[in-house]
């Protein structure tokens, strides 16, 4: 991807680090109390703050949905297959050429769901430089996300770091 985007090799290597990645395992219990009209979410709609997120759904129980062209698409689990989601840091690094995908997880009525996710983050202190965003470090991004969630109840994300005043417009729109 770095090659496709003509990114500087040293700089893109410093934006990716195995050392700052982590693995998280999830268990989504069975939930029978929902209907088509009132679905229940194991995880609400969000974008990952990572560079990349690699998902493995251990028991082939579906539920993951991704937003494409304003439509929620169900990701059918395929055995021995990993799903790679692009996160906010990849969107910034790629100057918005690659988009951080909005996704959510629906709970299952009959089976619990186990998934394992590996999140890749930028190296500590590495500055994300992009035409569309002010330079920032992942630590600064995360701090802003936490502040917004606390103050507004939702993540504003990359719009906060846009060069223009669209950040304010994005927040007003979301309210
Ligand atoms: O459990 C999943 O398949 C997705 C989890 C997820 O989206 C996340 O941890 O950010
Ligand atoms: Fe996610």
TrEMBL record:
PROSITE patterns (UniProt xref): FE2OG_OXY
Pfam families assigned: 2OG-FeII_Oxy (PF03171)
Domain Fe2OG dioxygenase span(s) in chain numbering: 27-122
Superkingdom classification of source: Eukaryota
InterPro entries noted in UniProt: IPNS-like_FE2OG_OXY, IPNS-like_sf, Iron_ascorbate_oxido_reductase, Oxoglu/Fe-dep_dioxygenase_dom
Stored PANTHER family: 2-OXOGLUTARATE (2OG) AND FE(II)-DEPENDENT OXYGENASE SUPERFAMILY PROTEIN-RELATED
Protein's name according to its UniProt entry: Fe2OG dioxygenase domain-containing protein
Organism expressing this protein natively: Cannabis sativa
Species lineage: Eukaryota, Viridiplantae, Streptophyta, Embryophyta, Tracheophyta
